[in-house]
Design a protein that fits this description.
By secondary structure, the protein is mainly alpha-helical. It contains seven helices and two strands. Helix content is 54%, strand content 5%.
Length: 126
């Protein structure tokens, strides 16, 4: 199994397998394969050591990926929270940040609803 940037790549075409690395999507994967002059249809397990080395070199020189990128994203979110700006408050409250509606939907961000029985008891007390 080929390992690049601390990620084991699956045995798929190279440009697809590179997408398993955090920070590399389809377009970046295709750019990397073009720069390395590798056939994009070749399987990740069929890459030679020199080809893997060139891909590693291109990624290390040109892109932030995996831990470094995750750290930067977390620092940006922490900065917004510390500033107390609107986006930071939304992050702190674990609500959608980019203007989506929350009256309905937003369940992914807000989590599961409380059971209906609890909601009825609260409504009766009020």
């Amino acid at each position: 199994m080929t390992r690049i940037a601390g990620v084991d790549l699956p045995n798929k075409p190279v440009w697809v397998a590179l997408g398993y690395i955090y920070g590399i999507g389809k377009s970046r994967a295709k750019e990397i394969v073009d720069q390395a002059r590798i056939n994009p249809r070749i399987r990740a397990n069929d890459l030679s050591e020199t080809q893997v080395a060139t891909i590693r070199k291109i990624i290390d020189e040109s892109y932030k990926v995996e831990g470094e990128l995750r750290k930067e994203v977390q620092m940006n979110i922490k900065r917004l929270i510390d500033l107390g700006c609107y986006r930071g408050l939304r992050h702190r409250k674990n609500l959608p940040v980019r203007g989506q509606r929350t009256h309905t939907n937003a369940r992914t961000r807000k989590g599961r609803r409380p059971p209906i029985a609890i909601r009825k008891k609260v409504a009766v007390k009020a």
